[in-house]
Amino acid sequence: MYVNDIYNLRVCTMVKRNAVLFVLATLTVLAAACTRPVGPQDSQIPAPSVWNRLVSSSATQKDVPFASGPEVEIDQQWWRHFGDPTLDELIKQALDNNKSLQIAKARVEEARAGRRAARSQLLPVVNAGMGAQRTNLGYFTNNSAVTFFEDEVVGTWEFDLFGRNQARTAAAAAIMESEEAARQAVRVGLLAEVARNYFAMRDLERQIDLTRQNLDLQKKTLALVQGQKQGTKASEFDVQRASAQVSATESLIPALKAGRDSARNRLNVLLGLAPGSLEELLNAPWDLKPLDQLILVAAPAKVLAERPDVRSAERIFAASISAKYVAQTAWLPQISLMSFFGAQSFGTSALQWANPWARGFNVILPALNFERIMSQIDSANAQQKQAFLNYQQTVLLALENMENVLSSYSNELNRNASLADNVKQNSTAAELVKHKYSSGYASLLDVLVAEMNQLVSQSSHTASDFNLRNDLVSIYSAAGGGWKGMDSKDEPRQLSEAK
Questions:
Q1: Cα–Cα distance for residue pair 172/197, rounded to 1 Å
Q2: pLDDT tens figures, 307-319
């Protein structure tokens, strides 16, 4: 007990002497708290005040399907506009289970750990140790066994006089923010892909139904021709020609089914499930709801501010600025403070304590490594240039993307109206030519051509209906809609909160 009391007393004395380390640590934490990532960077590409497609459309069309303005916000839950409960459920499950999204989340966690590691460079490194041993050192201990106690605390701290470590921390923070924005971009792309595959599946299902309906009509025509052949009003050639059209229409169904199954399998994988897992959900009854007559589109500046891919590219550029500063500070000295305190006992009969200590600093200056430093600075300059150009390219592609999808939707809307008229005209023509054929005033070829035209026009109109929905998905996706969560499990943090 006496030995332990003396030992504890020595340790307490040592801790008091190390109070200076805690002061240094506190000052360093305050310095780290003042460290901020590089602020938002300008791409130097001016955003237009309004989308060019909206200006040109308003000059040529009376009924423009878009409305835009600075007050229009990005719709973060755009899929609800389609009024499809099945799509809503698919979106929800994709957000919970998609593997690509989970991989992106893991990248954010990795980047967040990297930021913590960079921040730790601003703090002192303090290591403590203690040990005891029973030893005989011969002459030095009078050839007797002695007990040796030792404890020590060693602290080192790089005095970040020129902000090198703070720049590293700022770069790591910008990289973390870039990964967070990249995760949000994955989420935006995921929601759009789920919706597109869902609409592709529904389009193929509708195409299968239309093909079967027309196949039934063609079979009735074939039966009519076969009946007329028995009455010598039709030849064997007419029967074979009608049979050939029935076979050609039947051959369309397997390909449509294969496409439908591929879309279903893709939806399962997007939701993190094995193919075949969603059969009950996907087989549920559904209706094709009419689309909104007016689509609200945010202004270009707001779209560029909300798109995650643009924000990710901007943060990569910000990180390259900090990395360049780190490379430039290689010319400057590195100053490190060092402190050592310990307690030792070494005796044969009674504990005899010693208190070794040391304080000092080290200064390291570059001497014969100038070429290496210059190459690192040149590399950092080139990387910053690449990051800036990539940022500009991302902004330009974002503007192009929105202009293209706006044009695609408005033109598809006009095409859809023409196809609807075409369906009515071909349906009427098919009915008329069948009556004429029954009365002997039209040939079988006229009937077959009319029936095929009817199938083609109905198929084209159905495909256009779903093209409109896909184009609308593209508009919402191009605006950056969907990166903010609809539930707490996947609610992303704002970049300002992540700093």
A1: 37
A2: 999 999 999 999 9
* Pick from 343, 283, 370, 418: nearest CA to 129: 343
Start-to-end C-alpha separation, the chain:
51
Residue 69 has a CB neighbour count (10 Å cut-off) of 11
The b-or-e profile of 286-319 (16+ CB within 10 A means b, else e) is eebeebeeebbbbbbebbbbbbbbbbbbbbbbbb
**37-124+177-333+372-498 has which CATH code?**
1.20.1600.10
The average confidence (pLDDT) of the chain is 83
Q: Predicted confidence band at 27 (pLDDT cuts at 50, 70, 90)?
A: very low
The confidence score (pLDDT) of residue 57 equals 59
Res. 58 pLDDT band, cuts 50 70 90: low
The answer to whether the beta carbons of residues 98 and 190 sit under 8 Å apart is yes
What tokens appear for 138 in the block? 């011969």
Enumerate the H helices of 130-163 as residue ranges: none
Mean pLDDT value of segment 206-213: 91
Q: Are 252 and 259 in contact (CB under 8 A)?
A: no
How far is the CA of 498 from the CAs of 36, 76, 121, 174, 484, in angstroms?
11, 20, 19, 10, 15
pLDDT band at 437 (very low <50, low <70, confident <90, very high): confident
Q: Supply the pLDDT for residue 109.
A: 92
Instruction: Give the tens place of pLDDT for each residue, 74-105.
Output: 999 999 999 999 999 999 999 999 999 999 99
What does DSSP assign to residue 162? T
What's the rounded Cα separation, in Å, for the pair 406 and 356? 76
Place of tokens 């109070």: 19
- CB count in 10 Å sphere of residue 49: 11
Q: What is the largest CA-CA distance in the chain?
A: 134
Q: What pLDDT score does 352 carry? A: 67
What one-character DSSP code corresponds to residue 271?
T
pLDDT value, residue 230? 66
**Other CB atoms within 10 Å distance of the CB of residue 216:** 12
b/e sequence 226-244, b meaning 16+ C-beta within 10 Å: eebbeeeebeeebbebbee
Taking each helix axis from N to C end, the angle separating 52-60 and 370-439, rounded to the nearest 10 degrees, works out to 30
Give residue for tokens 């201990």.
Answer: 141
Both tokens assigned to 475: 């508009």
